[in-house]
Specification:
Blueprint lengths: L1 E5 L2 E9 L5 E5 L21 E5 L16 H14 L5 E6 L1 H12 L4 E7 L8 H14 L5 H8 L2 H6 L1 H12 L3 H13 L13 E6 L7 H10 L4 E5 L6 H4 L1 H14 L4
Parallel strand pairs: 3-4, 3-5, 5-6, 6-7, 7-8
Antiparallel strand pairs: 1-2, 2-4
Helix pairs in contact: 1-2, 3-7
Length: 264
């Protein structure tokens, strides 16, 4: 693990796998850190250099004052890639991480070799929804809204049969800095990437969980329809965080997509 100052903030990151060859970068969801990928990454470290990082306001990275924008997050990622001397990579983004990946593919198309967009969309939710979420956290912190979030993150079966793991992921969410969380809520609220989706010109796979309460399958499919040539896959028995709930299935989908993109 390493800490690097970019854009005036410290980002926590980790580089695994090969020193040479293709690179695969994972981008986290709202309220999570890069530990959510722990069961997915081993499938790629023998063939890829793998980059994990905590976006601003999350994990062990700095949490500057809110609000943030998707371009703030994208600027951070570009600066981290520059620091690591990575010119090109494939990207896997979950939820807001998928929005960051979409924005990167438009702003710095030459750096993006392939996209896997998990449980995300070009537009997520409504301004009213995010305003209510921000206000709730500003009033009482993340704790009071956590149970509702976990119901969207994980299926009932996962919550019932793997309660200890759910408790651990709950801890991760609750311990996210409140202003880091609301800052990124504002970034999602203000981001509408639909006008630029048609400019994404790299192999793209959009993945949905069939029980996702945050970005339902039809929303994810709608974004796939906006991106030229994008594929769509549905994971059965998964909520909003398939890298935790169905890591083997997601790993296989990513691997097949990278093979079809000529990166494996």
């Amino acid at each position: 693990m390493a800490f690097t100052r970019v854009n005036g903030i410290v980002l926590h990151h980790q580089v695994l796998g090969r020193d040479e060859g293709p690179v695969l970068v994972f981008i986290n969801s709202l309220g999570s850190d890069f530990r959510i990928w722990q069961e997915v990454v081993p499938a790629f470290t023998e063939r890829f250099g793998v980059v994990l990082y905590d976006k601003r306001g999350h994990g062990l990275s700095d949490a500057p004052p809110a609000p943030y924008t998707i371009d703030d997050h994208t600027d951070d990622l570009i600066a981290l890639l520059d620091h690591l001397k990575i010119d090109k990579a494939a990207f896997v983004g979950l939820s807001v991480g998928g929005m960051i990946a979409q924005r990167l593919a438009v702003r710095s198309a030459e750096r993006v070799q392939a996209l896997t967009l998990c449980c995300t969309a070009a537009k997520i939710g409504t301004p009213e929804l995010w305003a209510e979420r921000i206000a709730a956290v500003e009033r009482g912190g993340i704790e009071p809204i956590t149970d509702n979030i976990l119901q969207r993150w994980f299926t009932p079966l996962f919550r019932e049969t793997r309660s200890d793991e759910v408790a651990g992921w709950r801890n991760m969410l609750v311990r996210t800095p409140a202003h880091g969380y609301t800052g990124t809520c504002a970034a999602i609220r203000d981001a509408d990437l639909r006008p630029d989706a048609g400019r994404i010109a790299v192999p793209t796979l959009c993945v949905a969980g069939d029980q996702d309460g945050s970005t339902p399958a039809d929303v994810v499919k709608g974004t796939a329809d906006l991106i030229p040539g994008a594929g769509f896959a549905l994971i059965d028995g998964a909520g909003h965080i398939p890298c935790v709930e169905k890591p083997a299935v997601l790993s296989n989908l990513i691997n097949r997509h990278l093979q079809e993109a000529g990166l494996v």
